[in-house]
Amino acid sequence: MDNFHPEVVAFCCRHCAYAAADLAGGKRQPYPSAIKIVELPCTGRIDVVNILHAFEDGADGVLIAGCLDGSCHYIKGNLYARQRLDYVRGLLCEIGLEPGRARMINISAAMGVQFAELASEHVETVRALGPSPLRRKINQGEAT
Hints:
- The protein has five helices and four strands.
- The protein is of the alpha/beta class.
- It has one domain: Rossmann fold, CATH 3.40.50.
- Strands 2-1-3-4 form a four-stranded parallel β-sheet, with helices on both faces.
- Helix 1 (17-26) packs across helix 4 (112-129).
- It is globular.
């Protein structure tokens, strides 16, 4: 698994997490290229289907990054996202995927260094879990 390079889709709210990722880049704070950022107006817009589609499309992990608790620009959007993620983690267990493949973090726009650290931490967690079984099926299906 040394040559395994995970793919992690990061759904980031525009106001905080996306700005933190941008700040990390601006400060040349490295984080893995495995992170593929999808900008959302608010993590409250994330739907269970969006998360499941990321896995279905070959992602090895998903990271949802939103505003700090109590500081959501849309009042409760990050709370709704957390509830949906908890539901998805249960679904992942039911279909035989590790719930650790999906994680939510809460950060402010000024936390670029923390974004890089937490994103890197999640990529390492996913790397330790290995390739998603769904990813292997997709790759095999493309080969035939």
